[in-house]
Amino acid sequence: MSADMEGVTGVVDAEDVQPPGRDYERARVLMTEDVNAAVRGAYAAGATDVLVNDAHGPMRNLLPDLLDPRARLIKGRPKPMGMIEGLTPEYDAALCIGYHARAGILGVLSHSFMGHEIEDIWLDDQLTGEIGLFHATAAAYGVPLALLTGDDTACNELKAWDPTVATVPVKFAKDRFAAELVPVAEARESIETTTTAALSRLLTPERRSGPRTLAVRWQSASVASHLTAIPGVTRRDDRTVTVEADMLHLYRLFNLFLRVCTAVTSNPPYC
């Protein structure tokens, strides 16, 4: 289970998701309770082990003392596989809790990994963001993505990739920092029941072998220039780099890109 924050029930603003925002501490509780709803749903479906990866920002957001004690937690960073850390082929399913739409989509707190720093990402020439890369990497492990929760634009983005995956919209985007919220109790009940249903009808993903091509267009030409020091990375233009590798290597390499970008830029808040 990978837990992001922008798509959590009740969250709409940077003050909710960035420490020391005035509502950040409250949003940590909301995030933890969305995860707990999914954990309850997973165990109702017969799960015997649930691993949760804190995948947002500092990756120290979930509150261990409030987390369902049946779940194990990966907390902190850096992690070689970032938002997908901990996933291995031994797991029967992956879940995305609190996810958001990619950069350029008018969704709640939409961006791709680093806010302003990444303008676009393409996987095999298909525009993507965090959702598409997660789906592709999980499939490369042979693990089906069973569920995603977030706003309606995040749910629609996943459905475009794979219409078989269950989604739970916990809010409906009005703009990038505004949404019509599903009542908290209703949202958590829906997360729990949909998780149970989704895990009861898992489909085996189509495993795609061989190299895939990742392209990333950065805000800064300096980032692209630095990344060409990595073997196999080339520049398509001043701000766009491309690299070809198998999907698991690409995802790990992309997390290295993020660390290089952080070192090269000041990386201002994405909002």
TrEMBL record:
The active site is at residue 111. One of its GO terms (molecular function) is metal ion binding. InterPro entries: DppA_N, Peptidase_M55, Peptidase_M55_sf. The keyword Methyltransferase does not apply. Keywords: Metal-binding, Zinc. Zn(2+) 2 binds at residues 4, 56, 100, 130. Gene3D superfamilies: Dipeptide transport protein. It comes from the Bacteria. Zn(2+) 1 binds at residues 4, 6. It holds the Pfam family Peptidase_M55. The keyword Zinc applies. This is D-amino peptidase. It comes from Kribbella jejuensis.
